[in-house]
Amino acid sequence: MRSHTYYESMGAARIMAQIIDGKALAKEIKDELKIKIQSYINLGNRAPSLRCIIVGEDPASHTYVRNKIQAAIDVGIDATTIKYDATLSEDDLIEAINSLNTDRNVDGILVQLPLPGTMDERKVCNTVAPEKDVDGFHIINVGQLCLDMPTFVPATALAVVEILKRYKIDTFGRNAVVVGRSKNVGMPIAMMLHSDGKHDSQLGMDATVTVCHRYTPAEQLEFFCRNADIIITATGVPKLIKATMIKPGATVIDVGITRITDEQGKTKLVGDVDYEEVSKIAGAITPVPGGVGPMTVAMLMHNTLQAAQRLARKN
């Protein structure tokens, strides 16, 4: 990883942030997984298998699933998409999931969210067998994460932790702010950041964590961020995190992703962070796109191999 560089501006030295290259890191992890999966197969096991369920015709969801399937195939996972019309009933979806739960040739099950408004997402996610829940959304896996037990961790949250570890960002005793409290991203990130690294999950990062959300007053959000060594934001609010909110040298992980139309009328993806200005002050920063996104897909592949290994030992 390249070191910090410095430049003189207005007579004062300022830090140019280290750009955290999520694409390169994801490739590194997928290359490692490819070797591990081949070794697993060489021991006499079948290839790990993943089934991705998608309901409806949401274009973004179909793009995400295609990316996941391609990444799985690239590392040697047997991956298939199961598509249903938006008219599918919740009961029929649950029946389909239960069929996969009992299929010994299926290791991982992923239900692409969001689901049609007629369905209860929590009920559907809890239908997936915990041992095949590679998204980490089942209440048993969520509970085990909160208790620092080995479990499946939601891929985006796991991607953030893996970025911090592989870029050797020190978290021990550091002040960390998580902006956003969603149950699939903000909450699991905060849980791992503050957890004891000596516990069984081996995911704890021993940071002092503050969680901010939509009802945190703007002046308090700025106060907490300015005192943070690490900021992780996942709100979907473009340019929420500004340069005035950053402690010089802080690490900024941008999980947010929003499609906007620029002044030229072109659509583009942006994060929660004012990247151009914050990168002049932060010590390290993830771009959007090309930061957390590719890593999320890589960690889903990691979870799928883990599911296959656990089920093989069990069977």
UniProtKB/TrEMBL annotation:
Residues 154-310 form the Tetrahydrofolate dehydrogenase/cyclohydrolase NAD(P)-binding domain. It catalyses: (6R)-5,10-methenyltetrahydrofolate + H2O = (6R)-10-formyltetrahydrofolate + H(+). It is an enzyme of class 3 (hydrolase). The keyword DNA repair does not apply. The keyword Cell membrane does not apply. One of its GO terms (biological process) is tetrahydrofolate interconversion. GO terms for cellular component: mitochondrion. Residues 20-135 form the Tetrahydrofolate dehydrogenase/cyclohydrolase catalytic domain. Its EC number is 3.5.4.9. InterPro entries: Aminoacid_DH-like_N_sf, NAD(P)-bd_dom_sf, THF_DH/CycHdrlase, THF_DH/CycHdrlase_cat_dom, THF_DH/CycHdrlase_CS, THF_DH/CycHdrlase_NAD-bd_dom. Keywords: Hydrolase, Multifunctional enzyme, One-carbon metabolism, Oxidoreductase. GO terms for molecular function: methenyltetrahydrofolate cyclohydrolase activity; methylenetetrahydrofolate dehydrogenase (NAD+) activity; methylenetetrahydrofolate dehydrogenase (NADP+) activity. It holds the Pfam family THF_DHG_CYH_C. Homodimer. This is methenyltetrahydrofolate cyclohydrolase. It comes from Papilio xuthus. The lineage of its organism: Eukaryota, Metazoa, Ecdysozoa, Arthropoda, Hexapoda.
